[in-house]
């Protein structure tokens, strides 16, 4: 993922926000959680070195009946790392927000006004279906992207007033 992100930053475009959801497949393939955490931080650092803010998304739940306890423990450890380390704005000023996908769109206790669990999940209940990604997009906009845009707008107004 880091190399793909580097390629995006290599063109002349100026990116100011990256939304990063990673680690799900690594957990499924039983990769060590410390290696996953190191890789996640590296991806974020790639964006930060280009003055790009990041929104980090936690790894979502999946069907716990089909997950072993080790996988659940590793997922929880990765998510704790995302919340406490990658989301630490004091240490990483370009870490704009953490979107807690694990909490916002839970698999095991999913409740929604008009969507069912089958509408939201696909691929063996490990990845999202199109309607699931639409739901995530709406929640992500409301909780993170809109505040980001508002903060950038205020920043631009402050910069203009200073000159």
Automatic annotation (TrEMBL):
<dbReference type="InterPro" id="IPR001087">
    <property type="entry name" value="GDSL"/>
</dbReference>
<dbReference type="GO" id="GO:0016788">
    <property type="term" value="F:hydrolase activity, acting on ester bonds"/>
</dbReference>
<dbReference type="InterPro" id="IPR036514">
    <property type="entry name" value="SGNH_hydro_sf"/>
</dbReference>
<protein>
    <recommendedName>
        <fullName>SGNH hydrolase-type esterase domain-containing protein</fullName>
    </recommendedName>
</protein>
<dbReference type="Pfam" id="PF00657">
    <property type="entry name" value="Lipase_GDSL"/>
</dbReference>
């Amino acid at each position: 993922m880091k190399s793909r992100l580097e390629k995006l930053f290599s063109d002349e475009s100026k990116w100011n926000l990256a939304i990063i959801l990673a680690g799900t497949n690594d957990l499924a393939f039983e990769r060590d959680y410390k290696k996953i955490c190191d890789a996640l931080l590296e991806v974020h650092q790639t964006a930060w070195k280009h003055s790009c803010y990041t929104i980090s998304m936690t790894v979502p739940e999946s069907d716990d009946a089909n997950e072993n306890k080790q996988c659940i423990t590793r997922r929880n450890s990765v998510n704790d790392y995302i919340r406490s380390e990658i989301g630490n704005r004091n240490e990483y000023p370009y870490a704009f927000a953490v979107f807690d996908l694990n909490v916002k769109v839970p698999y095991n206790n999913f409740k929604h006004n008009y969507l069912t669990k089958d509408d939201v999940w696909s691929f063996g209940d490990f990845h999202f279906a199109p309607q699931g990604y639409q739901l995530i997009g709406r929640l992500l906009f409301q909780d993170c992207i809109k505040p980001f845009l508002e903060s950038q707008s205020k920043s631009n107004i402050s910069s203009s007033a200073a000159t």
